[in-house]
TrEMBL record:
Assembly: Homodimer.
Any one Pfam family match given in the protein's UniProt record, by short name: Ham1p_like
Entry EC number(s): 3.6.1.66
Gene Ontology molecular function: dITP diphosphatase activity; ITP diphosphatase activity; metal ion binding; nucleotide binding; ribonucleoside triphosphate phosphatase activity; XTP diphosphatase activity
Gene Ontology CC terms, in alphabetical order: cytosol
Residues annotated as the enzyme's active site: D73 (proton acceptor)
A GO BP annotation: nucleotide metabolic process
Family label: Belongs to the HAM1 NTPase family.
Cofactor: Mg(2+)
Name used for this protein in its record: dITP/XTP pyrophosphatase
Positions of Mg(2+) binding: D73
Protein purpose: Pyrophosphatase that catalyzes the hydrolysis of nucleoside triphosphates to their monophosphate derivatives, with a high preference for the non-canonical purine nucleotides XTP (xanthosine triphosphate), dITP (deoxyinosine triphosphate) and ITP. Seems to function as a house-cleaning enzyme that removes non-canonical purine nucleotides from the nucleotide pool, thus preventing their incorporation into DNA/RNA and avoiding chromosomal lesions.
Length: 210
């Protein structure tokens, strides 16, 4: 039997992210409440790694709410660019004079990769959970969906770089996959499942439970 429900503040203002993660964490007896609902502003993200930014966001949300917190940081890492744009993924298009936005990010990426033979890339997500802002042992889980950058956008599902990340083992881009399969394979889905197991073992004392 699960222990009483655990409430965490989710360090996001994105309602879609809240719904997606709540569906994953709900069966474990974890309730997520977005920081937007509590009037908590977004945290600064000055760091150069996903884990540092996720930790900063989680600490900020926990300190402002008095609750345990969960945060994620995610982005696209392109091998030919030394892992960039990484933590700057959301603003990638602005480097090249385009407005911020998914379609502009895709356009800028395809332009910058013209003529490159190394098309390897990965969508990466890092989740951090902590009990208090000063928790000395935060839980950290990561997920990575690797593929190849196409030469043009293909597919209508998903968002972000989904139309240009081709998965060789499936013969399709992320944007061509059925949403259920894409969510199962996704970097965020991988990270969430790993985090669920950490919470089950470390916080809820359910190690070995089904």
């Amino acid at each position: 039997m699960l222990k009483p429900a655990l409430t965490l503040v989710l360090a996001t203002h994105n309602a879609g992210k809240l719904a997606e993660l709540q569906a994953l964490f709900g069966p474990l007896g974890v309730r997520l409440q977005s920081q937007a609902e509590l009037g908590i502003p977004e945290a600064a993200e000055p760091h150069r790694t996903f884990v540092e930014n996720a930790l900063a966001k989680a600490r900020h949300a926990s300190a402002a709410s008095g609750l345990p917190a969960l945060a994620d940081d995610a982005g696209l890492c392109v091998e030919a660019f030394g892992g960039q744009p990484g933590v700057d993924t959301a603003f990638y298009a602005t480097r090249f004079g385009y407005p911020k936005g998914d379609a502009h990010n895709v356009r800028a990426l395809l332009e910058q990769m013209q003529g490159l033979s190394d098309r390897r890339a990965a969508l990466v997500s890092t989740l951090v959970a902590l009990r208090t802002p000063d928790d000395p042992e935060p839980l950290v889980a990561s997920g990575r969906l690797h593929g190849l950058i196409t030469t043009e956008a293909v597919g209508t599902h998903g968002f972000g770089f989904d139309p240009v990340l081709y998965l060789p083992e499936h013969g399709q881009t992320c944007a061509q996959l059925p949403p259920e399969l894409k969510n199962r394979l996704s970097h965020r889905g991988q990270a969430a499942r790993a985090m669920l197991e950490l919470m089950r073992q470390r916080w809820l004392g359910l190690e070995g439970a089904a």
